[in-house]
Amino acid sequence: MAIQLTGMAGGKVDLPPEAFQAFRGAFSGALLVPGDEGYEDTRRIWNGMIDRRPGLIARCTGTADVAQAVRFARRHGLLLSVRGGGHNIAGLAVCEGGLMIDLSLMRGVWVDPAARLARAQGGCTLGDLDRETQAHGLATVLGFVSATGIAGLTVGGGFGYLTRRHGWTCDNVASMEVVTADGEIRQVSAESHADLFWALRGGGGNFAIVTSFEYRLFPVGPEILGGALAWRGEDARQVLEAYRAFSAAAPRELTCVAALRTAPPAPWLPKEQHGKPVALIFVCHTGSIAEGEALLAPLRRTGSPIADTVTRRLYTQMQSLLDATQPKGRRYYWKSHYLPGISPELIEIGVAHLGRMVSPHSAFFLFHLAGALNELPAGHSPAGNRDAAYVLNIASAWERPEDDAANIRWARDCFEASGPCSTGGAYVNFLTEEEGTDRIEAAYGRPTLERLAAIKRAYDPDDLFRHTKRISA
Predict the structure, then answer these.
(1) pLDDT confidence of 157, banded at 50, 70, 90?
(2) How far apart are CA 195 and CA 220, in angstroms?
(3) What string of DSSP letters covers 292-317?
(4) Under a CB-based contact definition with an 8 Å cutoff, are residues 386 and 377 in contact?
(5) Dihedral sign of CA atoms 26, 32, 36, 41 in order
(6) Which of 138, 162, 260, 298 could make an SS bond with 217 (beta carbons 3.0 to 4.6 A apart)?
């Protein structure tokens, strides 16, 4: 009996049983079809808005499996998607009816503390990598939620608490092992396949599947000064004004994230504030603890904070502090802008939309970026946007499908209102499913897009890797 899968062009491909059996014989991991044990759990990703069903899932145990799966997809003209951590807002990991190549079992990490380098497989999460590097008091630039996959984060740019010191995540990649569309395994770096190496540092999953990354590491922790400060929602304007001044003057060892949202039932927040609007500032200082305490004194004197959890803590704990706000299976819809600064107009927009939030899980986030990334030339990597000082993330999150329209409308309204405050750029990892060519061009700019398209033609002329934020050859 033939297996029917979705083809690259969208039609159906009848896969003969002998072709499937040949693939199974060459593949060391598990091959799952609908109805198999583990299929449902593997296809379900972080964003509950995504409900696609691959016709076949290839759970890879190593690079050889990835290469076999790519050759199989190419030979039979199959629609292909790639899952690393499965944390992308647009759900790029999951294709409808095609072949999902699943790297989530490939989670090995090897650290060379003397060279300050780490090699991590493409299925690793941020937590996997941080745990191993912090055993040596080292870290690289990663994101804010420990369950995020390193692969999608890195090939889309990536930023976190260390960005102000060291740039985008992709700025700190020394080399990669990849499988290209022809099924070949290649080592790419500034010295080998330099054009492909350049494209993969921000150009997304358009060019190859990265099976491992080599990251540069920096001394961090293991203990840092970090945590959160909270104020009542009626103080939001004062708090954002203080955040604007405080973050603009902060040294690069200090990164702050501001958030407006409804107070969750967290034990560190007063019970009487649960379910009511709050303004939050998350703080991470990776320099001297004593210096960090002195720097934070003015922020702590702002208004009347209702909670203060900023203390000496492990860096790995700081890296997972926001995990509880992003549970798997909730429905998520994001909009975002890069910002040159925080204007009075933006503060008013944030305060207004705090009062209009539909869901208690939604938030208006401001991430501070300014520093090292602004010192590199615009063309250093496709991640670009070297004029950005902050990222605004309008993060709508809710539980029930019947609430989709209202929550999406809130995010879009806030996005439209804040557009004039933007640099005009876009962070490709925050682009939602429906955002197309105009936002991709905003993320990269025309010259970078043309260079990426030329590299796409060279390495993937048939557009096998099309289930991504697409750069056409």
Answers:
(1) very high
(2) 31
(3) HHHHHHHHHTSS--SEE--EEEEHHH
(4) yes
(5) positive
(6) 138
pLDDT tens, 446-459? 999 999 999 999 99
Give this prediction's pTM: 0.93
Q: What is the model's pLDDT at position 473?
A: 61
Token pair, residue 212, equals 């491992």
Total residues belonging to the chain:
473
401 CB burial (10 A radius; 0-12, 13-18, 19+)? exposed
Contacts (Cβ under 8 Å, ≥6 apart) of 157? 168, 169, 170, 202, 381, 383, 385, 427, 428, 429
**Helix (H) or strand (E) segment spanning residue 100:** strand 99-102
Q: Which residue has the tokens 């203990």?
A: 223
Q: Is 334 helix (H, G, I), strand (E, B) or coil?
A: strand
Average confidence (pLDDT) over 317-344: 95
Q: Where does the pLDDT of residue 468 fall: very low under 50, low under 70, confident under 90, or very high at 90 and above?
A: confident
The token duo for 453 is: 């398209």
Give the end-to-end CA distance of the chain in Å, rounded to a whole number: 36
Write the DSSP assignment of 198-264 as a string of letters: HHHTTSTTSSEEEEEEEEE-EE--SEEEEEEEEEEGGGHHHHHHHHHHHHHH--TTEEEEEEEEEPP
Mean pLDDT of 306-325: 95
